[in-house]
Amino acid sequence: MTARERVQRAFRHEEPDRVPIYEQTVCARIASEIMGRPMRTGGGRIRWEETAARWESEDAWRDYVGHLLEDVGDLIRELDFDIVGIPWRHSERPAAKLNDYTFRYEDPETQLWTTYHYDEATDVFDVVDSALRREGIPALERLVAAVARAAEQSSPPTAESYAELHALAQRAGDERMLKSVEGFLAIPLEAAWLEASALRPDLVEQYLDAVVEQTLVAIPVLPKLGIGLLWAGGDLASSAGPIYSPAMFRRFILPRLRRITRAAHEAGLVYLFRTDGDIWTVAQDLLVHSEIDGYGEIDNDAGMDPAEVKRKFPHLTLWGGISCGSTLVFDTPAGIRERVKQVMDTCAPGGGFIFGSSNSIHTGIPTRNFVAMQEAAREFGYYPRGAG
Fold it and tell me: What pLDDT, on the 0 to 100 scale, is given for residue 388?
């Protein structure tokens, strides 16, 4: 059975030969320790390094991306992940280098700017200042107008658009499921956007409509490019619950998400929605009424127990199971092995399950714990259940 077939069966709620396994990203430090050589695979480091290479020259950037694709492909092959996707990157060319760790991006047309900084201790490359933070809604108006213009001019993706993904899949070997992040739909969780949700809902709706239109142009072409899975969604909650109200979710997100999932199904694709946090107050809308096929980044530490989600929403295919914020950081290999067994026992029967962490394998996780998780997944992830 190929990896692609294994994932397809999971989404059809059939039991393949074993539970599919996947991680969105494995940080460079852990990947390097596993592979025994420097690796460019995930975490803030690769976003910072790619930005620095892009600043240096186009040739340096292309060289970096080539090595990144080789490293990620080799890691997927070594760990035998069933899904292939490009890791979270930051490939936009900066307008200025403020210091070795800090870069500024600017758009002359909109006069929007953003400053990113890399923190080695936390392995985070993220926004530390921006026009949006300084100006609020006036900057948001310019941003939304630019997104709307881009949507009007959008065209379907081409083979070149997915050349890097296919190069990565070829490096990884075997026939694995290829994913795309087309269909990502979210109100950005920044103060200006949340303020606009209450004071300028027209701006939020215009932005989301533009995102949907771009997505609907892309979706019909994706199966022709070898894509079988939309690995999308959009963060909307913290451990205390949704960042914005259930009423806002029903107004802003639900009808637009349903347009995307229906288009995906027409094209023969499946759609998995990813978000951290406690989503119980919007669960019926998000996990049922939206017509999504799967749910991932199941946040154990925020009260989203995978076993309970499986029991209440048996139609979904779940991805995750092991907390990357607590279990993988603080538990022992023996404790992790036992937790993996529990998750497999409750979530694997009947298919509809892809094993992984609750988000990603970040730099705070001891390598031995990640290795213990992978070994236990192979030990307990077989079908039929109870054999072996």
Answer: 43
